[in-house]
YcnI family protein
Amino acid sequence: MWSLVAGLVLAGTASAVLAVPATAHVRVDSGGELSKGGYGLVRLVVPTESDTASTVGVTVTIPEGVDLTSARTLPIPGWTATVEREQSGDGQRVSRIIWQAADPAQGVKTGEFGVFTLSAGPWPEDVDSVPLPSDQTYSDGSAVSWNEVVVNDGIDPEYPAPVVTLVDGSGHGDGHGATTTGSPSAVAASDSGSDDHAAATASGSASAEWLWQTAAALALVLSIASTAAVIVLLRRGHVAES
């Protein structure tokens, strides 16, 4: 009898574990790809995972060999952004982009996510993707480094770095991040539409994460309840046999 109970407990626990999704992480919005050798927008979706603290800082490090000569940030109310550069050959390259909340009250709170937009280029022509190691700082002083690169396909690291996907294309933009050609108003309209898409995509991702978390919690409660019921029934049968 007790072997049956043990088996049911293991089965219930396994189903609950399988219902829990991978922990949310900092990622590049999947709504767009950048042209090799060109300029474009990168949107980092940053969820706050802490139950007690807000996200108050995001730092992105540009890997060595990725020589971005231009980088601009989209203003975020209550936040400051700094683009750091370093010497590279005969010129300079962007080395880090730092976003910082002016006040902890302006941070990304528990259950929320922030979108941090970078317009930069030129991106490399000889690779298909560029990882962007990122550090997420919380209001309680803790920090999480999202800097691990996927080594084996199908195996996700615990703290994956967000990745920019690069594709072959002829659009090199205007040197300021716009890949759309035409009048300034057309470029602005394109950027606005892209921002709306990014917000919609990020919102959808957040909703999906909430649904998964709710389903996982429900599965765990049902697993515990069913296991307890089986134990009670078996104990009653044991007493009756005695």
Summary: DSSP finds two helices and twelve strands in the chain. Confidence is low (pLDDT under 50) at residues 1-22, 177-206. The longest strand covers residues 91-101. The first helix runs from residue 2 to 18.
